[in-house]
Specification:
Elements (H helix, E strand, L loop, with lengths): L1 H24 L5 H30 L3 H26 L19 H12 L4 H14 L2 H27 L4
Helix pairs in contact: 1-5, 2-3, 3-6, 5-6
Length: 171
């Protein structure tokens, strides 16, 4: 059953990638479509991980999968909330659900570009989708759920510190 779930998640990832490409080729890109796509992607990510947590809880008959799921959801919420409120702190009128490129500290040129790509690599939904497919195919669901829970909590902490430093706040 898990390998079939991995195929379905891989199919979801493929079509998620294809819809944006198709919209660009057909010149039908819109702000509404970009907003809807980003929100559906986040909802799908949450739904898939709720399913993973539920399967783990049933398989293990333990409560720790629910705690991993709570850690994932809390970290994801704080991270996404931090992205949307950063625009308000920067004085922009409307929040946008997309991560701006960070300003590299003390770096320029190729090193800054490399650092920017490294920073955004784990934030790329493709990496997270492939990790989920790998976990479903191999049965390492607990490791995947723990990794994304740690990932989002570390990422929101780092993001808040960087934004506070950049804006000169000490909150």
């Amino acid at each position: 059953m898990m390998p079939l779930a991995a195929v379905f998640v891989l199919g979801w990832w493929f079509f998620d990638r294809a819809d944006g490409q198709l919209a660009r080729r057909q010149n039908t890109v819109s702000a509404w479509g970009a907003w809807l796509d980003g929100n559906v992607d986040e909802l799908a990510d949450v739904g898939l991980h709720v399913a993973v947590g539920s399967v783990l809880a049933v398989q293990t008959a333990a409560s720790w999968p629910w705690w991993l799921l709570v850690a994932f959801l809390g970290g994801k919420y704080l991270f996404v909330h931090g992205l949307t409120t950063e625009e308000h702190a920067n004085g922009e009128e409307e929040p946008v659900l997309c991560e701006p490129h960070p300003r590299p500290l003390f770096l320029s040129g190729k090193a800054a570009g490399w650092l920017r790509r490294l920073y955004h690599l784990p934030g790329n939904a493709d990496v997270r989708a492939h990790l989920l497919v790998l976990a479903l195919a191999t049965g390492y669901l607990a490791a995947e759920l723990a990794l994304v829970a740690i990932y989002y909590n570390v990422r929101w902490l780092v993001r808040y510190v960087l934004v506070a430093r950049r804006l000169g706040g000490t909150r």
